[in-house]
Amino acid sequence: MIKLDQVSKSYNQDIPILKNISFSIQEGEMVFVTGHSGAGKTSLLKLIGVVEKPTSGAIFIKGQNITNINSDALPFLRRNFGLIFQDLKLLMDRDVFDNVALPLFISGFPRAQIPRRVRAALDKVGLLRKERSLPITLSGGEQQRLSIARAIINRPAILLADEPTANLDDAYEADILEILKDFNRVGVTVIIATHNIKMVKNMQLQNISLKNGELLK
Amino acid sequence: MNLIFGHLDAATFAIRRIFKQPVHGVFNIAVFSLAITLPLTFYVFIEHISKYSGSLTASPQISIFLEKNIQQKRIAQIAKLLEKSPQISKYSFISKTEALAELEAQDDISELLSEMESNPLPDAFVVTPSSTDPQIISHIYEETKNLPGVESVRIDSEWISKLNIILKLSGIIVSIISILLAASVVTITFNTIRLQILTQQEEIEFSKLIGATNSFIRRPFLYFGAIQGFLGSQGAILLTTIFILLLNKGFQKLANFYDSELSLNTLDADQLILVVLLPVVLGWIGAWLSTTRHLKKLEYQ
Ligand SMILES: Nc1ncnc2c1ncn2[C@@H]1O[C@H](COP(=O)(O)OP(=O)(O)O)[C@@H](O)[C@H]1O
Ligand SMILES: [Mg+2]
Predict the structure, then answer these.
(1) A108 to chain B: which residues are within 8 Å by CB?
(2) Which residues contact A70 (CB under 8 A, 6 or more apart)?
(3) What are A31's strand-pairing partners?
(4) Distance from C-alpha of B250 to C-alpha of B33, rounded to nearest angstrom
(5) ipTM exceeding 0.85?
(6) Structure confidence at residue B20 as a pLDDT band (50, 70, 90)
(7) Does pTM top 0.80 for this prediction?
């Protein structure tokens, strides 16, 4: 499903942020990416999610090398991913409903079915009653769940969640993890970046551990 | 079906965006209108000036000088030809005796003439063309100069070159104005769209990351540019018409003085279509350039 081969990334020609990373993830797996702050977790997720381009090495998604993808195919490749950004990237001038509906408009989803699909997603993350609220009026946990609803609205094959439980109480953390596990149960490949080792130990899943941009085995 | 919806969405989104900031939107459209109005009024002005310049100057006359010993029968034949030509509105025959008499009436040369034994002047026709169009005039010249019995043909050549210069100059000015108009419409649109993009940078960037195509992102901006061009052109038509009517009022006095009909027409159908279509197309182009420049920065690299 996902395969990295000797992938390196540096933002400004100088120091590489990720160094010679190689691993693969099977379809339907749930995987953690761990490491201290600044280890390169966010960068790694951005490389997999076709947000940033690797400086060297190759990344294969469903067997296709994405590093030399042409610009016409790029939008359609990106639609395979649900992205939960560390900084959420919610659109503050649109209400909850419109935030979640945006990916459906972008992918050309049948117009008449949009409200039903959006409400189902909001129900799943427990935000149905807030559909006309602006994101600014939501709590941290609610904003996090909103970003999850938006990430899964197009039923992506791969869900990339960057620190989805950061800044949340433990109770909320379990909540969010439970939601992500539900998606994994129906076949979605889930990759979660976190600096919270305790959480990973409890779950006993494959762990891609980074230290200063290098893969720990 | 979804494609149609996509375009409908983009168009309504663009309109809503204009009304979201009504003051800003109206101001933009007003600037737009003015940018089109000034060159447009000037264009109408120039166009009519060049059309009427002929009637402001005296109509050119063509003199057809006949051979010295031409027979009366031949003169009558030439007169018949001139009569039949649709390009000639008026002609008159001036015999050499009449011409001499006219010259003798002028004191300073009469003495000189009286010393000559025979009349040195030829018989002649003086022809007034039906139009001041240089092409028609040169056509008359070509047709008459080789007629049997015709010695030479002379046109008031100064008049011709003046008219040609005016026409050429106004052609150049109109081209310059058209280019300025096009450039200003594109520039204004480019800038309004650039500002719009800045206020929506986050949304655009996010949309691209989750798989929006460039044309999906561009579309509302293209509609915005085209709609702004359309509304701007409506304003420009209104303003130009007002300007022309005001100018005409001023010309009235001038026209009375010259005893000629000098008044600018308001925009005709061809011009209206052009004035509406062109800003729409140019607005679209300006928006396309602006969005394309921004999207370049968001490429996967
Ligand atoms: N866009 C960027 N430009 C330059 N440096 C960056 C950029 N993004 C991240 N970095 C640097 O890369 C390193 C890894 O960052 P990141 O991938 O965010 O780590 P993590 O998510 O594990 O905290 C950090 O030193 C960070 O400063
Ligand atoms: Mg990070």
Answers:
(1) 2, 6
(2) none
(3) A191, A206
(4) 24
(5) yes
(6) confident
(7) no
Closest alpha carbon to B224 in B15, B6, B57, B7: B15
For the segment B150-178, what is each residue's pLDDT rounded down to a tens digit? 998 888 766 666 767 777 787 788 788 88
CATH T-level topology, domain B62-155? Alpha-Beta Plaits (3.30.70)
Pair A79, B210: CB distance under 8 Å: yes
Closest listed residue to residue B85, CA positions, set B67, B64, B57: B64
* Residues near ion ligand 2 (Cβ under 5 Å): A 42, 86
Domain boundaries in chain B? 2-56+162-300, 62-155
Which pLDDT score is estimated for B55? 52
Q: Judging by DSSP bridges, how do beta strands B88-94 and B124-129 pair with one another?
A: antiparallel
Question: Is pLDDT above 80 for A153?
Answer: yes
Ligand 1 binding pocket (C-beta < 6 A) is: A 11, 17, 35, 37-43
Cα–Cα distance between B28 and B22 in angstroms, integer? 10
Q: Whole-number mean pLDDT of chain B?
A: 82
Distance from CA of B214 to the nearest CA of A (A): 9
B25-45 pLDDT per residue, tens: 788 888 888 888 877 887 777
Q: Nearest 10 degrees: CA dihedral of B140, B145, B151, B157?
A: 60
The span from the CA of B236 to the CA of B217, in Å, is: 30
- Ligand nearest, relative to CA of residue A34: 1
Q: How does strand B62-66 pair with strand B124-129?
A: antiparallel
Residues composing chain A: 217
Q: Which of A49, A75, A89 sits opposite B213 (nearest CB)?
A: A75
